């Protein structure tokens, strides 16, 4: 399974009552594929506000986005949680729907050790025939999956990739030791070019909601050997990468990118509590990033 090099971790559009806005979700899928050049979409990941979505909403989203994409890009379902049994259940349901793969986050809050992480992911992987992508994001989970654990999991036949958010060092070490058919993605937009340079395969991005076409050009330039052009694009986009998260005080993802999408004419709505939308000052800062 090749998920492509540019994957968007898709936001979940909400209406004024905080319910899923299906009309805007349809528009967003078209926009991300056709205009922003996403080769795959992660549905119900962290950026999709998975902690505040019910299982019913998640399964509806998997089905809706899969049908809307209609083969134009791969659909990766966020089915991971800190409950192994629940993750197995949701993964099986996603497989019935027909998604192309699943994203499984490192369990949060209960802080398993490395052996617990191995057993968690291997238990889920053995219960599905879908391609599995691991997701190491210690800033959100409180646990870092080690390079050794990642490489050990990569030996399981349907664990085919990892989304690595710990550091470029981790990307380097995994890419140096894994097999050629195991794909290493960075989940940090600002580390995208550096990760490609040390052997990463692609980027699972938030900023690609609004600058995906440029990011796609950057990746193509790098993989085609035009490193100078890739560097130019990275430098142009760097303030947007940083601004969407730092904004001017750190703003929880996806609050900023949802506001940025509204500036692009896509009314994806606000966020569900406990997240909050940007303040007036933060909104002005986000607007300035695109002028």
UniProtKB/TrEMBL annotation:
Which keywords annotate this record? Amino-acid biosynthesis, Cytoplasm, Diaminopimelate biosynthesis, Lyase, Lysine biosynthesis, Schiff base
Per the UniProt record, one Pfam family is DHDPS
Pathway annotation: Amino-acid biosynthesis; L-lysine biosynthesis via DAP pathway; (S)-tetrahydrodipicolinate from L-aspartate: step 3/4
The UniProt catalytic activity note for this protein reads: L-aspartate 4-semialdehyde + pyruvate = (2S,4S)-4-hydroxy-2,3,4,5-tetrahydrodipicolinate + H2O + H(+)
Catalytic residue list = 135, 163
Q: Where does pyruvate bind?
A: 47, 204
Record site feature (Part of a proton relay during catalysis), residues: 46, 109
Family annotation (InterPro entries): Aldolase_TIM, DapA, DapA-like, Schiff_base-form_aldolases_CS
Cell division: is it a keyword of this entry? no
Record flagged with keyword Zinc? no
The primary site where this protein sits is: cytoplasm
Task: Give EC number(s), comma-separated.
Answer: 4.3.3.7
Q: Report which superkingdom the organism of origin falls in.
A: Bacteria
Q: Where in the cell is it found?
A: Cytoplasm
Q: Which family does it belong to?
A: Belongs to the DapA family.
Description of how the protein assembles with itself and partners: Homotetramer; dimer of dimers.
Function, as annotated: Catalyzes the condensation of (S)-aspartate-beta-semialdehyde [(S)-ASA] and pyruvate to 4-hydroxy-tetrahydrodipicolinate (HTPA).
Protein name (Swiss-Prot/TrEMBL): 4-hydroxy-tetrahydrodipicolinate synthase
Q: From which organism does this entry originate? A: Paenibacillus odorifer
Q: What is the lineage of its organism?
A: Bacteria, Bacillati, Bacillota, Bacilli, Bacillales
């Amino acid at each position: 399974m090749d998920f492509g090099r540019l994957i968007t971790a898709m936001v979940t559009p909400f209406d004024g009552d905080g319910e899923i806005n299906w009309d805007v979700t349809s528009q967003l899928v078209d926009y991300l594929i056709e205009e922003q050049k996403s080769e795959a979409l992660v549905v119900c990941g962290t950026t999709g506000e998975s902690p505040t979505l019910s299982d019913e909403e998640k399964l509806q989203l998997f089905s809706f986005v899969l049908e809307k994409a209609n083969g134009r890009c791969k659909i990766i379902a966020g089915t991971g949680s800190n409950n192994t049994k629940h993750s197995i259940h949701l993964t099986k349901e996603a497989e019935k729907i027909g998604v192309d793969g699943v994203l499984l986050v490192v369990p949060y809050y209960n802080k398993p050790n490395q052996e617990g992480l191995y057993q968690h992911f291997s238990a889920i992987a053995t219960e599905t025939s879908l391609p599995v992508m691991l997701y190491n994001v210690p800033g959100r989970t409180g646990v870092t999956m080690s390079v050794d654990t990642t490489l050990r999991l990569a030996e399981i036949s349907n664990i085919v990739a990892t989304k690595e958010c710990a550091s470029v060092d981790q990307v380097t070490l995994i890419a140096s030791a894994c097999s050629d058919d195991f794909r290493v993605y960075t989940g940090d937009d600002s580390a995208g070019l550096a990760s490609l340079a040390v052997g990463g395969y692609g980027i699972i991005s938030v900023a690609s909601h609004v600058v995906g076409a440029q990011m796609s050009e950057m990746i193509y330039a790098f993989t085609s050997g035009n490193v100078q052009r890739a560097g130019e694009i990275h430098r142009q986009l760097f303030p947007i990468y940083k601004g969407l998260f730092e904004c001017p005080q750190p703003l929880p993802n996806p609050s900023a990118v949802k506001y940025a999408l509204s500036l692009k004419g896509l009314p994806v709505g606000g966020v569900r509590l406990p997240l909050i939308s940007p303040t007036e000052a933060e909104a002005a800062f986000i607007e300035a990033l695109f002028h």
